[in-house]
Specification:
The complex is a heterodimer of chains A (about 800) and B (about 160). Chain A is of the alpha+beta class and about 800 residues long. Chain A is built from 20 helices and 30 strands. In chain A, the strands form eight sheets. Chain A has a seven-stranded mixed beta sheet, sandwiched between helices. A five-stranded mixed beta sheet of chain A has the order 9-17-16-15-10. Chain B has about 160 residues and is α+β, with helices and mostly antiparallel strands. Chain B has a five-stranded mixed beta sheet, with helices on both faces. The chains are: A alpha+beta (about 800), B alpha+beta (about 160). At the A-B interface, helix 1 and helix 18 of A face helix 2, helix 3 and helix 5 of B. One FE2/S2 (inorganic) cluster sits at the interface of chains B and A.
Chain lengths: ~800, ~160
């Protein structure tokens, strides 16, 4: 590879200045002429029949322009198995069910109108744990399935299963076995910018919606389906994405509030905005799912893993989002982190009357890593082998195909393990005593897209103009992670122009080519690969036209030079003949002949050449399009087999903690995060994304939990739901990036958006075990749990 | 009921009127169209709405709008230099990666401004102390602290 000019260099992000100036426009900041404010009336029961909704008082309130319920609007179904409704009819199944909505001329009136809506319920018994939901006489959350057939239990019709090797043989071969039940809580994505949208119809009944989404094109499909449900079949939803105040998975589904604003906008003929406040975001937006994982692993006397058995139970809540498919990602580490010949994995999901959940960063992986990596330390102890050593002995290798059929191209796991051991001073710190200890945990995740949908593709359009500007049209979403930074550097590098000539257009389904969504750590991997493909086409086209046009432009340059400096001596060079060969180079915005790279008149400014191509008879504008769909497969989830990603990413984190056995407080003293990133695209944004993921991992480990009682959320605010502040993040962090230069990666890079938070919690728990000898099984690791565990020791 | 207000906003005097129950953040965002000030919680928990009132960082979601009468208010829109340039502090956030989604950034930057006005040479601990009321979900705060250290160093080398 030729030397990289922009990739790998510390570069400030292009969206930074406007954000620093308060000039980035989030959904909260947008308004449209004549816009109304929508507000939703939510259920006050977790499970109840709706007997009567009286909207008359709300309708009479001056300033109210529409009040809608399921009774006076078409039925709009949502969710990928279509078991949810924009507005609920007949009964509510969770506390946050949307029952009615209003549109009013201002937000205060809308709020007042909501309070005037009277609902009469008949309470029904609910189910709030997987055990309750599976009891023989459990009340049914859904009496009928989406196709109208009667249901007779609360199990979801989704199955995720994997078996490989011979479990019994693996068990028989094991000399040491460790088992455990582990659980993780519901947590909230806690985006600083809450959810919201604006929906607006034109008089041709075409919809434009400004949405806070990570999946503009899947959202377009969902909204178009809703338009069809509304009797507007064939009409289109144009989805525009404004600046996002974080997303972290919360934008992977379309949400009831979006369909409600569409219904209100259509009813009123005016733009309607719905924005959640913080209480609503906590109580009424889907959080990360909880999990219960039972795991058993065994190894022989040498520490070679002989089997792994995992059963997952998942409280899905009342409806199904894409987040319900998180066992797909659990299956990746379950089958493929470390070499295990005999594996059983199964996940079962049940409906309950709890809030329904959705995706969050890591998508099942942190949940599984919590069980797997905690249990591995228990196994190491049972076998009398150092946990670092046990991991090394079972370390994955490049070139292997895992039991799930995942093809490992590059693998930096061994380097990650070793780096963490070195930086955290592994053997010394393991036996330091004084209630201090160190622990480590690893991760395995998709790093080259993740096919959870028929297409894992992404489109890219590069449109060059007469000034040498490159306008980039890309359907992925910048939500703070730094994708615009990676993408602008990739275009600059691949095309050969300066980053400041690159303009990334706002994500808009009306102008950008299709992309499946910014999820699965695929944003930069996909965008940069597509940018490379499109850049190749642009260069080929420009170089083709340059055969005939380059010499003339070079001679113009020479003429100008001679005018300035009559003594200028041009090198003796047959530019026509050289140009006809079609061998050109484009770098930093100049087209030149590799045979004479430094001759100044033979360096033609790209904009000059583009104008020459454009402004002539039979001229041409240079625009290129590419669609990159990575070489991976859609797995069969019932068999648990298929190469989901084009490459995989690895990492290990090590933590040193000190535990106060009087108070149960855990203090982090040092954290080392070593990640196989393939190749660093922009060190500044990569570090930022990883630091942020670590903070989320620490929140997951020690602080965060959405508390609920009989389905009602008890802590819907930042006072009672603690995310890490700057005070909690006060310890030295070493980030170590291992570059394995993946052949499928753009410039060698792998996706790295999610991995940073995956192994943090088990690394901390393993360090706590090393420090004070207690094993915590349930996140978050609160002081109360530490004290209780110490008492039972 | 509305009352009349006179105060200095980002260096310019302004006369307006506001309903007595409005918060400063409503006055700024809804009446004066200064949407750089963000709302993250409306309960004084996140700091996204931080602005300076007479040099002090306050949560504008808790600050009654009528109380700015006669005072000096600085919002993120008032920090930049002339000719559409960022201030040194804002530029340091850009240069050091202190910004990701950017939603917390205006509040972070104003908390930092209040600190640097009082203490041009803060230690790491003093910076962390000053940011105690500002939540960020994206950055883990590391590069935000770096940004403020860089800004302090640059501002000090200017004088
Ligand atoms: S919005 Fe004021 S502190 Fe959160
Ligand atoms: S940069 Fe996103 S919340 Fe701070």
């Amino acid at each position: 590879m030729t030397e990289l000019k922009y990739i790998g260099k510390e570069t400030p992000r292009p969206d930074g200045p406007d954000k620093a100036a308060g000039r980035a426009h989030y959904i909260h900041d947008l308004s449209r002429p004549g816009m109304l404010y929508g507000k939703v009336k939510f259920s006050e029961h977790a499970h109840a029949r709706i007997l009567r909704i009286d909207t008359s008082k709300a309708e009479r309130l001056p300033g109210v322009q529409a009040v809608i319920t399921a009774e006076n609007t078409p039925e709009v179904r949502i969710g990928f198995i279509r078991d949810n409704f924009a507005l609920k009819k007949g009964k509510v199944r969770q506390f946050r069910d949307e029952i009615a909505a209003v549109a009013a001329i201002d937000a205060d009136i809308a709020a007042e109108a909501i309070d005037l809506i009277e609902v009469e319920y008949e309470a029904l018994p609910g189910v709030f744990t997987t055990e309750e939901a599976l009891a023989d006489d459990a009340p049914l959350v859904h009496e009928i399935d989406p196709r109208g057939r009667p249901r007779n239990d609360n199990r979801l019709p989704l199955r995720f299963h994997h078996e490989s090797g011979d479990l019994e043989a693996g068990r028989a071969a094991a000399k040491h076995i460790a088992s455990g039940d582990f659980s993780t809580p519901v947590i909230q994505q806690s985006c600083m910018g809450t959810a919201g949208c604006i929906a607006e119809f034109d008089l041709n009944q075409q919809l434009t919606i400004w949405a806070k989404t990570q999946i503009p094109f899947l959202a377009q499909r969902d909204f178009n389906q809703a338009l069809a449900d509304m009797g507007l079949a064939g009409k289109n939803a144009r989805v525009i994405v404004s600046a996002l105040g974080g997303a972290f998975g919360s934008g992977l589904d379309t949400h009831a509030y979006e369909f409600i604003s569409i219904l209100l906008a259509h009813r009123t003929g005016k733009p309607v905005k719905i924005v959640y406040n913080r209480d609503e975001e906590f109580a009424y937006l889907s959080p990360r799912q909880s999990s219960q994982v039972s795991i058993t692993q065994g190894c022989d006397d040498e520490g070679q893993l002989t089997f792994r058995e995992i059963q997952v139970w998942q409280d899905n809540g009342a409806y199904t989002s894409w987040g319900a498919t998180f066992p797909t990602v659990m299956m990746l580490p379950a089958t493929s982190l470390y070499r295990v010949p005999n594996i059983f994995f199964d996940a079962k999901l049940v409906y309950t009357n709890n809030t329904y959940c959705q995706a969050m960063r890591g998508y099942g992986n942190p949940e599984l890593a919590w069980a797997l990596e905690s249990n591995l330390d228990d196994l190491a102890e049972a076998a009398g082998i150092d946990p670092f050593e046990l991991r090394l002995r079972n370390c994955n290798q490049p070139g292997e195909t895992t039991p799930m059929g995942l093809k490992v191209t590059t693998c930096g796991l061994k380097e990650c393990l070793q780096t963490v051991a070195d930086k955290i001073a592994w053997p010394q710190k393991r036996s330091q005593g004084k209630r201090r200890g160190v622990g480590m945990a690893s991760l395995f995740h998709v790093g080259g897209g993740g096919r959870i949908y028929r297409s894992d593709g992404t489109g890219m359009i590069l449109k060059l103009d007469d000034f040498g500007n490159v306008n980039v049209y890309f359907g992925g979403v910048e939500m703070g992670q730094g994708m615009y930074s990676a993408l602008s550097l990739a275009v600059a590098e691949a095309l050969g122009v300066k980053p400041e000539k690159i303009f990334i257009n706002p994500t808009d389904t009306g102008t950008c080519p299709w992309d499946v969504g910014t999820h699965a750590s695929r944003g930069a991997f996909m965008a940069c690969n597509a940018a490379i493909a499109a850049s190749k086409k642009v260069r080929a086209r420009i170089f083709e036209r340059a055969r005939a046009l380059f010499a003339n432009e070079a001679k113009k340059n020479l003429k100008k030079l001679h005018k300035k400096n009559p003594d200028f001596k041009a090198a003796d060079f047959d530019v026509e003949a050289e140009a006809r060969n079609g061998e050109f180079e484009l770098q930093d915005g100049f087209v030149f002949l590799p045979a004479a790279p430094d001759e100044s008149w033979l360096r033609v400014d790209l904009s000059q050449l583009l104008r020459a191509i454009h402004f002539r008879e039979q001229g041409e504008m240079i625009t290129a399009e590419a669609f990159y769909d990575p070489p991976n497969e859609l797995p069969d989830w019932e068999k648990g087999y298929g190469n989901m990603s084009a490459t995989y990413t690895w990492g290990t984190q090590g933590v040193e903690v000190e535990v106060d056995t009087e108070t149960g407080e855990v203090k982090i003293l040092h954290l080392v995060a070593a990640h196989d990133v393939g190749k660093v695209l922009n060190p500044q944004t990569l570090k930022g994304q990883t630091y942020g993921a670590l903070a989320q991992g620490i929140g997951y480990a020690l602080y965060e939990e959405v508390l609920s009682e009989q389905g009602r959320i008890l802590n819907p605010n930042f006072r009672d739901y603690k995310i890490p502040t700057v005070a909690e993040m006060n310890f030295p962090i070493d980030l170590e990036f291992i570059e394995t230069n993946d052949p499928e990666g753009p410039f060698g890079a792998k996706g790295i958006g999610e991995p940073g938070l995956v192994p943090t919690a088990p690394a901390i728990a393993n360090a706590i075990y090393n420090a004070i000898g207690v094993r915590i099984h349930d996140l978050p690791i609160t002081p109360e749990k530490i004290l209780a565990a110490l008492k039972n020791k | 009921m509305k009352i009349d207000l006179s105060f200095t906003l980002n260096g310019s005097p302004i006369n307006t009127s506001v309903a007595v129950d409005r918060r400063l953040v409503d006055l700024l965002r809804d009446e004066l169209d200064l949407t750089g000030t963000k709302i993250g919680c409306e309960e004084g928990e996140c700091g996204a709405c931080t602005v300076l009132v007479d040099g002090q960082a306050v949560n504008s979601c808790l600050f009654p709008a009528p109380e700015v009468d006669g005072k000096h208010v600085i919002t993120i829109e008032g920090l930049g230099e002339s000719d559409n340039r960022l201030s040194e502090l804002q530029q340091a956030f850009v240069d050091q990666g202190g910004i990701q989604c950017g939603f917390c950034s205006p509040g972070m930057i104003l908390s930092a401004r209040a600190l640097l006005n009082e203490n041009p040479n803060p230690s790491q601990d003093e910076i962390r102390e000053a940011l105690g009321g500002n939540l960020c979900r994206c950055t883990g705060y590391v590069q935000i602290v770096d940004s403020i250290q860089t800004a302090a160093a640059r501002e000090n080398s200017d004088d």
